[in-house]
Design a protein that fits this description.
The complex is a heterodimer of chains A (113) and B (112).
Chain A (H helix, E strand, L loop, with lengths): L2 E3 L4 E5 L4 E3 L2 E3 L5 E8 L6 E7 L7 E2 L2 E6 L4 E6 L8 E9 L4 E3 L3 E6 L1
Parallel strand pairs in A: 2-12
Antiparallel strand pairs in A: 1-4, 3-9, 5-6, 5-10, 7-8, 8-9, 10-11, 10-12
Chain B lengths: L3 E4 L2 E4 L5 E7 L5 E8 L3 E8 L6 E2 L6 E5 L5 E5 L8 E8 L7 E2 L3 E5 L1
Parallel strand pairs in B: 2-11
Antiparallel strand pairs in B: 1-3, 3-8, 4-5, 4-9, 5-6, 7-8, 9-10, 9-11
Classes of the chains: A mainly beta (113), B mainly beta (112).
Amino acid sequence: AQTVTQSQPEMSVQEAETVTLSCTYDTSESDYYLFWYKQPPSRQMILVIRQEAYKQQNATENRFSVNFQKAAKSFSLKISDSQLGDAAMYFCAYGDRDDKIIFGKGTRLHILP
Amino acid sequence: NAGVTQTPKFQVLKTGQSMTLQCAQDMNHNSMYWYRQDPGMGLRLIYYSASEGTTDKGEVPNGYNVSRLNKREFSLRLESAAPSQTSVYFCASSQGENQPQHFGDGTRLSIL
């Protein structure tokens, strides 16, 4: 069975600094996709970024970028120029071709002013 | 833009009572999902439906049943609620085929 592991339950970063959130996953599939979601205190789930496994190029969305290492089964999220509004729970998610999507346990990110 | 609508938003049940959580999406999505979110456990997949007429078990299906009534609606039923099912439940939908999920606002369910 596929699993998603986020090894950092909580992290803190100074405003305007850069922070990297870790995610590893386990799968025997070669074709899959990966996501990062953000959940602020409002409890809404917001898509941050997605990556398709067959693409070598790392996805980027403004201040958010990923480091996708397929062989290592690693999918980390880098947030540049951290802002107070980035404070939230961040979830890494894995999706397979059967449209089954599973999540990690999350990393709570604190932004220090 | 309604997106994914879950009802109710809050519910308190007694142990042994039954309950159906409703979910509807207006985006013509193929796939729909039910998750539960517990502190320190992230979101765990209960059931999902990759298309109308199909349902599959996720990570934690025991104690739950689902119905994909049509393309728009995907309900989650607790036949005999237990305190361990106290949680926040999220419904989500996606177009499938690599597309991201859209989530409802969640249902906070407490079982006494």
